């Protein structure tokens, strides 16, 4: 049987997702962190890799929890038959939490009104609500402000007595600005966890570390880590070398097929605004990915692409559906496979290369792959 990993098998516009890589990455990270619990973060369609498939692969690697931003994302996992514990932490202000509670989704609570709404919903239904407090320790984003901690913990302790509410966790999210900034946040977090315990709560999960801190800051691991990026085999810039040493493998290969190829003379200008002009006779190859598929227009003239046996830069502007590469005198034909990014060890450009070429971070590169790009799965858990 043919191996879909083989480039000759590439579809016209596809993201090949190696689920074995995700399983193996989770195993590696679990071993590294040694924490009792491991939350695999599969929000935003599993960072573009497919939430359900990623969740299954991560659970197979030893994750015992899943993390998402939106309750809808948690319900999608439930609908697919995934019954592992899930925590969701970013809510519509009008959210009633009824569905989340009946689907046994643990609710990340960042405001007092959310806590009250959860308690109200819990008394309406037969299922006890699980709450995890998300504490703001410096990021100033989502998260309960310090001024509300005491009130929230005391209220929750009261709800634990009278309503069907259980506080299962306390967590925070770090800025990764500097190591010292993160240490300051963790000091504050420790205070928050202590205050929760003083109020009579007994959170079973205490978590702060996402990929960056999990990789570089053992103090941030507590009894649980909450990892997204690294399970997909990517790492924050400063940790890329370490990720490679650990054996993390990028799970996504973005690839396609040349849609058009033409031999052109010197002085031929390319794509909108003619920002690129050939210096000599050369071959132009058309790649069927554009900003409609998540390719940043900012990568115009810069994004690297493997085509015709080597890596070439985008020639001229990225358009909505397509861009051009100048492959020189290398033979190229319509239908030849191209790889935008994948595993650097296989000679392909990486998501980090694309992040640099697009003035962004690798999180965004994989997450925004979308639109018309088909996902194709390989690995033990792939069912196609
Ligand atoms: C997205 C997110 C994570 C995962 O972060 P990575 O850096 O991708 O590991 C963890 N926690 C929270 C609260 C998040 O929003």
From TrEMBL:
Xref: Pfam families: Ala_racemase_C (PF00842), Ala_racemase_N (PF01168)
Modified residues (N6-(pyridoxal phosphate)lysine): 43
Cofactor(s) annotated in UniProt: pyridoxal 5'-phosphate
Entry EC no(s): 5.1.1.1
Any coiled-coil regions, as ranges: none
Pathway of action: Amino-acid biosynthesis; D-alanine biosynthesis; D-alanine from L-alanine: step 1/1
Annotated HAMAP family: Ala_racemase (MF_01201)
Main function: Catalyzes the interconversion of L-alanine and D-alanine. May also act on other amino acids.
Protein name: Alanine racemase
Organism placement in taxonomy: Bacteria, Bacillati, Actinomycetota, Actinomycetes, Micrococcales
